[in-house]
Design goal:
- By secondary structure, the protein is an alpha/beta fold.
- It has two domains: about 230 residues, Malonyl-Coenzyme A Acyl Carrier Protein, domain 2, CATH 3.40.366; about 70 residues, Alpha-Beta Plaits (2-Layer Sandwich), CATH 3.30.70.
């Protein structure tokens, strides 16, 4: 058995998401305490009690999810689990993957992702941006619809290639609405606007990049101890400068998730373990490659099952 650990991105958060694991493992709240100290805020209270409107803000969701994912990763390690062959993170989840790989200190990553979230929220003013999910159309067809429905003052782009027939659009709200309607007319099984105002992974994030580059340069990166497959190039970078560059481009580039998973399966990965709350990436696994099994770790029972199944991996 060869397995990979993957870390979900924004959207995996929900109030009370770590309650079961925290009740069984005090290390969860200890990790949140570290993150809270780095920001001077009580992230555990926000994760456990909400309110949801505040938790779902990009500037809050990203550090809270980072704390959640690294707390699960630490539990995995503390229970004596074997190391995965590869790591990957969906969008923002790539930061958790880099922390897990030893390429970025957790204490440095927390303020870094807060800065990332702040800049993303500021890059597109309130009500300007939007995102939409499209199911049932091919990648090339969705790209063509985006090109046809974009204009000089309102762009829409394919932002996430999550699985065959599952693409997320991002851009100016008016253009996203036009493209969503065009996708329905083209025969999409489903095309719907998402409850998101930040047009992530689109050219509207260019303003954020100009400021974020400074934050990335100030953060200390090292070569990963476990290969991390990045979102933008679908490759494992080892040079810290190249890691920074990929993270910078990730802000305005598509998330090539399906390609990343297929790359790993071609290297022999046949089990994917989701290191985060929920099971979004677990649900995508079989849609990308039917031979790939996915396990999530959102409860103590899930954790124990995954530990049993990987006991002989190496």
């Amino acid at each position: 058995m060869t397995f990979a650990c993957v870390f979900p991105g924004q959207g995996a958060q929900k109030v009370g998401m770590m309650g079961d694991l925290a009740a069984a493992h005090p290390q969860v709240e200890e990790t949140f305490a570290e993150a809270s100290e780095a920001l001077g805020e009580d992230l555990w209270k926000l994760a456990d009690e909400g309110p949801a409107e505040q938790l779902n803000q990009t500037r809050n969701a990203q550090p809270v999810l980072l704390a959640a994912e690294i707390s699960i990763w630490r539990l995995w390690q503390q229970r004596g689990a074997p190391s995965p062959a590869y790591l990957a993170g969906h969008s923002f989840g790539e930061y958790a993957a880099l922390v897990a790989a030893g390429a970025l200190e957790f204490s440095s990553a927390v303020p870094l992702v807060r800065r990332r979230g702040d800049l993303m929220q500021q890059a597109a003013g309130e009500g300007i941006g939007s995102m939409a999910a499209v199911l049932g159309l091919g990648d090339a067809q969705v790209r063509e619809i985006c090109a046809q429905t974009s204009s000089s003052d309102a762009v829409v782009e394919a932002a996430n290639f999550n699985a065959p027939g599952q693409v997320v659009l991002s851009g100016h709200r008016a253009a996203v609405e036009r493209a969503t309607e065009a996708c329905r007319e083209a025969g999409a099984r489903r095309a719907m606007l998402l409850d998101v105002s930040v047009p992530a992974h689109s050219s509207l994030m260019q303003e954020a990049v100009n400021h974020y580059a400074e934050a990335l340069e100030a953060a200390e990166f090292a070569s990963p101890e476990i290969p991390v497959i990045n979102n933008v190039d679908v490759q494992a970078e080892t040079d810290p400068a190249c890691i920074r560059d990929a993270l910078e481009r990730q802000l305005y580039s598509p998330v090539r998730w399906a390609e990343s998973i297929l790359w790993m399966t071609k290297q022999g990965v046949n089990l994917q373990i989701e290191m985060g709350p929920g099971k979004i990436l677990t649900g995508l696994a079989r849609r990308i490659d039917k031979s790939l099994r996915g396990l999530c770790l959102e409860t103590p029972d899930n954790l124990n099952q995954a530990l049993e199944e990987t006991a002989d991996a190496g």
